[in-house]
Design goal:
Layout: H1 3-66, H2 75-99, H3 114-119, H4 121-140, H5 143-149, H6 153-165, H7 171-194, H8 199-222, H9 230-251, H10 254-259, H11 267-293, H12 296-317, H13 324-363
Helix pairs in contact: 1-4, 1-11, 1-12, 2-9, 2-11, 4-8, 4-9, 5-12, 6-8, 7-13, 11-12, 12-13
Pfam family, one: TPT
Membrane topology: Multi-pass membrane protein
Protein name: GDP-fucose transporter 1 isoform X1
Length: 367
Amino acid sequence: MSPLNLKRSRILQMALMGSSSSLDGQGEEKTAQELFLTRAVKIVVVVSLYWFVSITMVFLNHYLLDSPSLNLDAPLFVTFYQCVVTVLLCKGLGLLASFFPASSMDFPSLRFDLKVLRSILPLSLVFIGMITFNNLCLKFIGVAFYTVGRCLSTIFNVIISFLLLKQTTSLYALLSCGIILGGFWLGIDQEGEEGTLSWISIVFGVLASLFVSLNAIYTKKFLPVVDGSVWRLTFYNNLNACILFLPLMLLLGELKTVYQFDKLGTLHFWGMMTLGGIFGFAIGYVTGLQIKFTSPLSHNISGTAKACAQTVLAVLYYEEVKSLLWWASNLMVLSGSFSYTWVKSLEMKKVQEEHNPKMNEKSDPTV
């Protein structure tokens, strides 16, 4: 081959290679965009699902606990039945996962173990307090004020962490707690001004907030008992609750109230009760799903935004008229919660950044 032809072939080869690499680059960019869009759609779907389940569950529980059309004064029975539904769903999903191991269903097999049931009893008592006071608060308080009524979980987290774990809190985090506390008191004042304040609901809201904080701490402590499985812990917690609610309902006369309930044999009543139990179970799943597809920080921000939307929906649905200061109390609670979450996330990031260089120094053989 002549030098001129050789030169031309090389030029042609280089042009073809350049064209091919350009096409490869465009293909990679297109694939990256498709992956980004797919992930964005998944996140939107998961966050929307979390909002739908959480908001629907609150409205549904309020209907079951305080609806004039239903008129059932048995909050412990409603809570007990939701625990029964959760136990049955956990067991059913566990059986399905064992029958179809090749499927994508990621659910642990569940078997009754009396030793485990006894071991997590302290956590179950806290869990019962949390769901009972939460429902009692919702029974005696409007859905619109529900966010403010039980907003003190963050405050109790700080107090309990200091008392039990000796963990101190930064000034900025304490200022965020101060904003939440200010919003709480302003909300109580405004509810009193409007004549809709129920002090018993405030007491139940404070107790619910306390037990939410205790439940978070005790859950971390007792997770190793069930090999770190949140679903196994859910199963045994609700099973313990089913057993312990029976004497409580008997002592408080709720079994007699339920027996005399005029809608006990109606399909509508049991359908709504079962639906409430399903949503109560689903909230645990969609919460984990949202954290998985976003992050714990994004989950907390989403929860704060959801609470805001829930308050607005409640005011519109129940056709309530609220003062400017009432809205200001909600805004203070939500902004304080958001601020606290943001501050704690920055502090954790700073700790990780300070910890990583030390780990690198230890692993570097030249140091």
